[in-house]
Write a structure and sequence with these properties.
There is one protein chain. The chain is of the alpha+beta class. It has helices at 45-57, 120-128; strands spanning 4-13, 16-21, 32-33, 36-38, 60-72, 80-91, 101-106. The chain has a single domain (4-128), classed as Nucleoside Triphosphate Pyrophosphohydrolase, CATH 3.90.79. The longest helix has 13 residues, at 45-57. The protein is globular.
Length: 131
C-alpha cells in the first residue's frame, strides 16, 4: 500500500492554537484537527500546507519549522505520514471555509478536545511543551 503524505499547520496567536472540526458528514465527522491536508503529486510539503491554508482558511501563511513527523494507519486504510509545521505568521483573518467549526484553544486544553486518532500523540506532546 502506498503511504499518503499529510501536512498540518500549528497556528498560534496570543497564546492560543487554531483547531478545526470536520463536518458532520465527512469521514471522522466532528473530530478536531489542525488545518492542512494531503500533499499532491510533485508538490513540496510546505507548498501543500500553504495551499491548504489558503483554501481552508483564506490566509496567507509563512510556514516555519517542521515540529513533528510520524506514520499512522487507520484500520482498513492506507498508511499516512503526518508532518506538522509551525506557522510562523500569516496575513488575513482565518475564515471557516470548509469546516463544521474553527476555534482558538489554549495549549494545555488540547488533550481534552476530541482530536483525530492520528493527531493524539502530537497533541499530547504539544500540550506538554515537548515535541
Amino acid at each position: 500500500m502506498k503511504r499518503l503524505l499529510v501536512v498540518a499547520g500549528v497556528i498560534e496567536r496570543d497564546g492560543l492554537i487554531l483547531v478545526c472540526q470536520r463536518k458532520a458528514g465527512d469521514r471522522h465527522g466532528l473530530k478536531w484537527e489542525f488545518p492542512g491536508g494531503k500533499v499532491e503529486r510533485d508538490e513540496e510539503p510546505r507548498d501543500a500546507l500553504r495551499r491548504e491554508l489558503r483554501e481552508e482558511l483564506g490566509i496567507e501563511p509563512v510556514i516555519g519549522a517542521e515540529m513533528a513527523r510520524y506514520d499512522y494507519q487507520y484500520p482498513g486504510r492506507s498508511p499516512i505520514r503526518l508532518l506538522f509545521f509551525r506557522v510562523e505568521s500569516f496575513t488575513g483573518t482565518p475564515k471557516n471555509r470548509v469546516f463544521e467549526a474553527i476555534d482558538w484553544a489554549e495549549r494545555q486544553t488540547l488533550p481534552s478536545i476530541d482530536f483525530l486518532d492520528g493527531d493524539i500523540d502530537f497533541v499530547r506532546r504539544l500540550a506538554n511543551g515537548t515535541r
